[in-house]
Design goal:
- By secondary structure, this protein is of the alpha+beta class.
- About 20% of the residues lie in helices and about 30% in strands.
- Helix 9 runs parallel beside helix 10.
- The longest helix has 17 residues.
- It binds alpha-D-galactopyranose.
- The site of alpha-D-galactopyranose has 12 residues, from loops.
Length: about 725
């Protein structure tokens, strides 16, 4: 078993293939954290707990005159609140008597094989190939009887530990849960860098790395979605860590709504990191006997730098996260109508775009926004999921049939969570959107957010979208969400339950995705929220790919994709070649480079194919052929970031290596170009040093060792924004 309780030492031991996690029940029944890091064989690490009398760090009453025991400095698995720990708390409870306190002590534990289940929430699942064991530890407050169950699942071979928390109100009072962190982790040192991924609409997941400083650093979202601004993923790594060296810890939150990740460097140079639902405007009413389940955090530890950490996440997210059968299937090359036509199209125009795309080797035509209701701009019709017959007189079916007759698959765009004020739906059910009494709601892109906490609203969405999917042959759906939540107030919830709306929205979203997406396994769903505003593992549970960003500029995409790859696999990033000058930045980049960049993901096109030159079409045809040939390598291979675009400006390079190390693909884009500049060599990674390889773009054969140590010359003749790929195959 990968989970054990050692009675004599009162320690819990979790073992993955290469990591060890240890905890201990302390003298007074508190659960202390001992260690998470490189795998150790059956060592008892209790000695790490060194007690001492520290001024102004209070002692629990039961410690009597022992002034050396204080929760204010001891490393814990789940911190108490309202008691003697002044650091970040894992929980905040308003008890029936009005007090704010939770002091949990170990009441019991349970170990079983298999993984715990989180009702209503996406989480990692296990296959028969996985060895998975679960540990549940009950922490009970002796006064209120409120219980917190800490859940740990060890995926031994995957080198992954998942955590979640269940709160059970065993008290006799109605209580309010105002904060619940899914994961709390203490480190007895603080020489770490905090890496997180931040940004904005059209510039998501920008890499950010800073040493910990005294005090608290926070990333998070209270926008109702995981957001463009911060991603629910963070890394703590030793300061010297780089791609190939050093201790690195990853924390990935399987949730699509408000989240918070806080890290504190305390007065004793220790570190605490917490991750969970953002407590802002969160207050969950719990009547006696009720329980609350917090979403899952996926932990990974790498002792060999950031690349290995990435591989652990890519591996588990490719195999144990997405429920769609498409997760493991080759995705079709698509062309999307958005940047080609925006709202201005009719059937004839679409068919022309599709016709020219077929000729390039495209396999799927996606009709983006504008096909329903009176949707001729973004001011109207969200909620009215019937076809706009002025644009498509023969309906979706007529268009889909024509598209299929060309040999293409057919897909559509939807935005089911929203309503426009100018819509039949809003006129009929104005109370179906989130809005506060006596206030006008804030608009975002002219639209309002439907109240997914309501069952009647969810039923409407499920019926109407399932109706659309049944009305024509539709093999792909882009599921969008184009504004964040404000005015989180539901017309049917009691006033004591209005603090539940953000989370109930997400539970409602997961419910409708269960009822729409998981009942259509034949349809490939792509997530989207103005690009990557909801790029998180919660969405990837339902949708194998997500539109990475509304920014299709290849140069910006290099940074966006760089950040995204730290945790999310290449097979999750939908990436398109678009027209130049680029619609977002005005930049012009060669079409080859646009293709090379988009191939670092699920390749697609988003331009008016009827306006392309023959030469451009030929380049795209070749791109598609080459991508399809290398699909398995790109989508399933190991990923290596060869440069960091934030610290090295000359070029950006990355590499895919097949699991058997027989094939690799290095892609490189020139960034800042100077005249008569230095000769550079890009060094491969992940090859077999003893194997010999042929590089398609060069003469001769090279050992893996040579390619990794001496590297491949970057041609000096390449100009700014030009790209090159090296196809490396074992001989
Ligand atoms: C969002 C998406 C775009 C496009 C538009 C349509 O912004 O990210 O790709 O689908 O909506 O309105």
């Amino acid at each position: 078993m990968s989970v054990r309780y050692i009675e004599s030492k009162k320690t819990f031991l979790l073992q993955t293939k290469s990591s060890t996690y240890q905890m201990k029940i302390s003298d007074y029944g508190y659960l202390l954290h001992l260690y998470y890091g490189e795998r150790l064989e059956d060592e008892d690490l209790s000695y790490l707990i060194q007690l001492q009398d520290r001024g102004f760090s209070p002692n629990p009453y039961e410690a009597g005159n022992d002034r050396t025991f204080s929760l204010d400095f001891l490393p814990q698995e789940f911190s108490s609140d309202g008691s003697s720990d002044y650091r970040l708390s894992s929980i905040e409870i308003k008890n029936g008597d009005g007090s704010y306190a939770f002091v949990g002590k170990v009441a019991k534990h349970q170990i079983y094989s298999g993984k715990y289940h989180l009702a209503g929430l996406p989480s990692l699942w296990t296959t028969e190939k996985d060895t998975a064991d679960t540990l549940e530890i009950w922490l009970t407050d002796a006064v209120t009887q409120l219980t917190v169950v800490l859940c740990y699942c060890v995926l031994e071979e995957k080198d992954i530990i998942t955590r979640s928390v269940r709160v059970i109100n065993q008290s006799e009072d109605t209580i309010y849960l105002n904060r619940i962190m899914s994961m709390t982790m203490d480190f007895m040192d603080s020489d770490y860098d905090f890496i997180h991924f931040d940004g904005r609409h059209t510039m998501e997941r920008e890499w950010s790395r800073n040493p910990l400083a005294y005090g608290i650093q926070t990333v998070g979202s209270f926008r109702g979605a995981s957001s463009h601004q911060h991603n629910p993923f963070a890394i703590l790594c030793e300061s010297a860590a780089n791609e190939d060296y050093g201790r690195c810890y990853g924390f990935s939150f399987v949730y699509s709504g408000n989240f918070m990740c806080k890290v504190e460097k305390d007065q004793y140079d220790q570190t605490r990191i917490v991750m969970g639902i953002h407590p802002k405007h969160f207050s969950w009413q719990m009547k006696p006997g009720e329980s609350f389940t917090a979403p899952e955090v996926v932990l990974a530890y790498s002792g060999q730098g950031l690349t290995h950490l990435t591989h652990l996440y890519h591996n588990v997210y490719r195999e144990n996260l997405c429920k769609s059968p498409y997760a493991k299937k080759e995705r079709p090359i698509l062309i999307n109508s958005w940047e080609a036509a925006y709202f201005d199209f009719d059937e004839e125009k679409l068919l022309k775009i599709a016709g020219d795309a077929v000729d390039m080797g495209v396999e799927l035509f996606v009709l983006d926004d504008g096909w329903f209701g009176n949707r001729n701009n973004d001011n109207a019709a969200l909620g009215d999921w019937d076809v706009n017959t002025a644009k498509l007189p023969r309906g979706l079916k007529g268009l889909s049939d024509e598209i299929h007759a060309m040999g293409l698959k057919f897909g559509i765009w939807i935005e089911p969570e929203m309503v426009s004020e100018d819509s039949k739906l809003y006129r009929k059910h104005p109370d179906w959107c989130l809005q506060m009494p006596r206030r006008q709601p804030s608009r975002g892109r002219y639209q309002l957010v439907l109240d997914l906490s309501r069952e009647d609203v969810r039923d409407y969405i499920v019926t109407s979208i399932n109706g659309v999917l049944g009305s024509a042959r539709i093999e792909y759906v882009k599921w969008d969400m184009n504004r964040f939540i404000t005015d989180a107030w539901s017309a049917i919830a009691e006033k004591e339950k209005q603090g539940e709306i953000y989370h109930r929205y997400i539970l409602g979203l997961y419910d409708i995705m269960n009822r729409i997406i998981l009942t259509h396994p034949e349809v490939l769903f792509c997530g989207c929220s103005g690009g990557g505003g909801r790029f998180d593992p919660g969405m990837l549970y339902y949708q194998p790919q997500i539109w990475c960003s509304d920014n299709t500029d290849a140069v910006c995409r290099l940074k966006i994709q760089y950040g995204t790859t730290f945790v999310y696999p290449v097979s999750a990033m939908e990436s398109h070649v678009s027209v130049c000058p680029n619609h977002q930045t005005g930049r012009t980049v060669p079409i080859k480079t646009r293709g090379v960049t988009a191939m670092d993901g699920i390749l697609g096109y988003e331009l008016d194919s009827t306006k392309m030159t023959q030469e451009e079409k030929q380049i795209c045809r070749e791109q598609i052929q080459s991508y399809k040939k290398d699909y398995a390598l790109i989508a399933e291979g190991d990923y290596f970031r060869l440069t960091n675009p934030y610290t090295f400006m000359e070029y950006v390079a990355w590499e895919h290596v097949s699991r058997d190390q027989k094939e690799a693909l290095i892609s490189l884009v020139i960034m800042e170009k100077e005249a008569n500049d230095a000769q550079r060599c890009v060094k491969a990674k992940g090859l077999n040093p003893g194997m010999y390889y042929q590089v398609e773009e060069m003469e001769g054969h090279f050992s893996g060792q040579v390619l990794m140590s001496a590297g491949l010359p970057v041609p000096n003749g390449l100009l700014q924004y030009e790209a090159i790929q090296y196809h490396i195959r074992a001989i």
